[in-house]
């Protein structure tokens, strides 16, 4: 058997929970006379080579039933012989007696063998048989998923390590200056005793000198942490100076079997203590308080701050096979296990959790869409829980089994894989991974006709509203687009096309369907648009309700402004409209617009909303008077009409309207003139229907200049700004 064809240790070892038990019951010698009974017994003891041999004989003689083919395919899968498994599944499909589960298993095997188009076809067949099963939707809804996962070979650099052997080497972890890993090279407490499944020795824990991106001089660890059964998948808690690791549930000579007589996996720990002569030694072996003989517990991972313990288990309450769980550190014990939930866990197997210091959870899964075998995934953890799950893609993932990724800095670490080119069934590799990216894709369509819009310009903003200039959105035929961008929790798509309103689409990485974004654009011949800003600061106002009403006051459309403060409406020809603008805590405003007599075009109305607070002062622009006069000029009347509209839009507000002069001239004269001008403005407003008890006039002369300059040193512009008309809110 060549190295590349050696059974996949990661796929069947107890450390991966694939039927992870060791049996010790004697075989009924009478039952061995029956081939199928012998095969079943071989499967129970994980002796898949013997199981395969029995069923191969039945197939060769032509006496195999569909159930025999099904079991032979399973044996080939467990032995790491995917091509033989595929051939048997194909033969099973030809019997006409295949079950929906057989169809799904065949599709999975085709995917594992890299035959992605054929796998998609059989996933489709399975979906017709079991449309309620969501396991295949990730492939059928995204038929180009394999192309996308394979397209970027530069997303990571993978390196071989000199510590690998011809046997299985897997589950790397950092322990101070050492690289901790599991190996089946047969040098530890388990000796060379063979495990029937893969005919390799039982796994033991090893260390190697960690030297940056590589490791050297592998040595088996002492018997304090190794046993005669499987030991592996460790995690060192640098806060507590403690090593957690996985082993068969064997505790100081006692086998903790389940009710069926099976030996499952359990988590144990040992502290680093000071020995008799001052040297570091391993302390007593301590079982994890939540171990249960009737379930498998393994793959421990300690969060960088030591406050959480992540692990994999098939305990009750999970989503399917093995799930990722975690416990909170309560000081002197670990709290009750908490399931990571359906975002992370699936009906398949989730294994090998690793929490990066940036709060990204990396793990292995067979349930999330992948290239085949075990793929490595990641999810950003937040207070609200885990975010959307992403596949790392090629070259970190292949159609083979890739697992056990850890990091020792932001981008560099180690993982294990049974991909071709290694020394044995599983090897440990070094890797440097480019910061995670997100793939966005979608289509731009006409809002009314739903027809794709060609030639739209699309720009991308980050969560802070900054344009991501280095990210280029690729336009595709049929109005489609795609872009790969550095990971952000949120994005903003800004879409423009001549004859259409600008469309701004907010995209949440953790909530939205990132590969099926639909941008609907509103076409126009006539349009109303503008920006709503804060009257005090001039900054755009977000969350302002802008309504478009017809001439009779009926609501046509309503929008909320985004961070840009923009609004836009499509208009009809020869029509009158009214715009109403409001936001809690601000003055309401409105404006009348019309397309009558206009061939086409855009009507622009910007609104400045001032905070509605008692004693709030608002300056009225463009209120001018003739020299030494107080009568209202036509241009001033236009501005006062806007104030009339504001008071009508805010019927409970009472104001004081004031007039101010510059400092030139006598004080008494300026005071009298300002009082006359203020009264003229108030009289005009009252004449437009505003009740007189809602508005008072006040002339301040030159007593309240707005400009901080001495009278004989003010510029003409400063004098002009001192000559002003304002109103102050008396009550709201």
Q: What characteristics describe this protein?
A:
five-stranded antiparallel β-sheet, alpha+beta, disordered N terminus, elongated, Immunoglobulin-like, 12 helices, 732 residues, 35% strand, Neuraminidase
Commentary on this structure:
There is one protein chain. The chain is an alpha+beta fold and 732 residues long. It folds into four domains: 155-435, TolB, C-terminal domain (Neuraminidase, 6 Propeller), CATH 2.120.10; 438-521, Immunoglobulins (Immunoglobulin-like); 526-609, Immunoglobulin-like (Sandwich); 617-731, 60s Ribosomal Protein L30, Chain: A (2-Layer Sandwich), CATH 3.30.1330.60. 18% of the residues lie in helices and 35% in strands. A hairpin with a 3-residue loop joins β31 (474-476) and β32 (480-486). α3 (48-60) packs antiparallel against α4, α4 packs antiparallel against α5 (82-93) and α5 (82-93) runs antiparallel to α6 (100-112).
């Amino acid at each position: 058997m060549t190295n590349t064809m050696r059974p996949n240790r990661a796929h069947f070892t107890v450390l991966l929970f694939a039927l992870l038990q060791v049996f010790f019951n004697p075989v009924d010698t009478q039952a061995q006379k029956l081939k199928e009974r012998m095969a079943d017994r071989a499967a129970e003891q994980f002796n898949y080579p013997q199981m395969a041999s029995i069923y191969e004989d039945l197939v060769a003689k032509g006496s195999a039933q569909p159930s025999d083919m099904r079991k032979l395919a399973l044996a080939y899968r467990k032995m790491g012989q995917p091509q033989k498994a595929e051939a048997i599944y194909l033969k099973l499909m030809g019997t006409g007696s295949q079950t929906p589960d057989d169809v799904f298993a065949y599709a999975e095997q085709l995917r594992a063998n890299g035959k992605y188009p054929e796998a998609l076809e059989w996933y489709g067949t399975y979906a017709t048989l079991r449309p309620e099963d969501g396991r295949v939707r990730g492939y059928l809804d995204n038929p180009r998923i394999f192309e996308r996962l394979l397209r970027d070979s530069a997303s990571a650099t993978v390196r071989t390590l000199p510590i690998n052997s011809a046997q299985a080497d897997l589950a790397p972890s950092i322990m101070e200056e050492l690289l901790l890993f599991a190996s089946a090279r047969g040098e530890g407490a388990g000796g060379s005793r063979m495990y029937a499944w893969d005919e390799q020795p039982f796994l033991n824990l090893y260390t190697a000198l960690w030297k940056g991106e590589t490791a050297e001089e592998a040595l088996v660890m002492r018997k304090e942490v190794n046993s005669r059964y499987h030991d592996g998948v460790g995690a060192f808690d640098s806060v507590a100076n403690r090593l957690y690791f996985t082993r068969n549930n064997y505790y100081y000579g006692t086998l903790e079997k389940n009710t069926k007589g099976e030996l499952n996996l359990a988590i144990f720990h040992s502290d680093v203590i000071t020995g008799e002569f001052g040297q570091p030694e391993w302390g007593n072996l301590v079982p994890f308080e939540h171990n249960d003989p009737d379930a498998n517990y393994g793959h421990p991972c300690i969060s960088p701050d030591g406050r959480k313990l992540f692990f994999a288990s098939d305990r009750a309450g999970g989503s399917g096979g093995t799930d990722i769980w975690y416990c909170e550190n309560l000081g002197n014990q670990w709290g009750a296990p908490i399931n990571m939930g359906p975002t992370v866990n699936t009906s398949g197997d989730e294994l090998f959790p690793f929490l990066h210091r940036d709060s990204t959870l990396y793990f292995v899964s067979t349930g999330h869409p992948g290239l085949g075998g075990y793929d490595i995934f990641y999810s950003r953890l937040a207070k609200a829980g885990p975010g959307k799950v992403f596949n790392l893609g090629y070259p970190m993932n292949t159609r083979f089994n890739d697992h056990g990724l850890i990091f020792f800095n932001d981008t560099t670490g180690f993982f294990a894989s049974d991909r071709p080119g290694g020394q044995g069934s599983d090897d440990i590799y070094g890797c440097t991974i480019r910061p995670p990216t997100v793939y966005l894709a979608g289509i731009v369509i006409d809002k009314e006709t739903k027809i794709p819009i060609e030639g739209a310009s699309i720009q991308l903003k980050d969560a802070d509203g900054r344009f991501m200039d280095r990210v280029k959105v690729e336009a595709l035929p049929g109005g489609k687009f795609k872009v790969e961008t550095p990971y952000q929790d949120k994005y903003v798509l800004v879409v423009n096309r001549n004859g259409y309103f600008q469309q701004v689409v907010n995209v949440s990485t953790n909530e939205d369907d990132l590969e099926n974004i639909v941008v609907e654009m509103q076409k126009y011949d006539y349009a109303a648009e503008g920006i709503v800003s804060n009257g005090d600061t001039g900054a755009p106002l977000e969350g302002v309700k802008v309504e478009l009403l017809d001439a009779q006051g009926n609501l046509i459309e309503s929008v909320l402004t985004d961070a840009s403060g923009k609004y836009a409406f499509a208009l009809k020809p020869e029509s009158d409209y009214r715009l109403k603008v409001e936001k809690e805590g601000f003055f309401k405003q409105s404006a009348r617009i019309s397309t009558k007599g206009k061939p086409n075009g855009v009507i622009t109305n910007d609104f400045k909303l001032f905070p509605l607070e008692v004693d709030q002062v608002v300056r009225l622009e463009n209120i001018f008077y003739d020299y030494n006069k107080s009568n209202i000029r036509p241009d001033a009347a236009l501005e006062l009409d806007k104030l009339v509209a504001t008071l009508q839009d805010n019927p409970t507000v009472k104001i004081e309207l004031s007039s101010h002069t510059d400092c030139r001239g006598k004080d008494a004269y300026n005071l009298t003139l300002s009082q006359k001008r203020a009264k003229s403005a108030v009289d005009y407003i009252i004449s437009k229907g505003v009740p007189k008890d809602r508005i008072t006039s006040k002339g301040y002369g030159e007593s309240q200049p707005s400009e901080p300059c001495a009278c004989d040193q003010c510029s003409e512009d400063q004098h002009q700004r001192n000559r002003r008309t304002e109103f102050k809110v008396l009550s709201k």
